Here is the input.
Amino acid sequence: MGEILTPTAATVLARLYAEDARQRADELPIMQRTRNIEHESGRFLALSVVATGAREIVEMGSSNGVSTIWLASGALLTGGRVTGSELNPERAAAANANLAEAGLGQIAHVRTGDARDRHGTGPPHRLAVHRRREG
Here is the structure.
């Protein structure tokens, strides 16, 4: 299988990973930083979507949309959709802007609020949960 990312999505992810690196270099407290998965973990998520043929993907804890872009990149190949959730309204808005910039806004959307309030027609095919460990 070739590269799973479109060139547009790869460009957006490169920018987001650079922003994450700056936040870490500036030693921003974890509660102020975006929480992004590593490149290889993202690739794994996208490939998992493709390998399982997932068509309805739910993500809990989207932050600024890095993992959502990876999931949507896999969903682009399966004809699926991604619904993310983020408690922080600013991060949810940033995630949706990043998805649109990546060319994935038609198949992925991040909602503000608790993922437990998700409205769907049935269980998702793939569920990605991102939660910061306490302590």
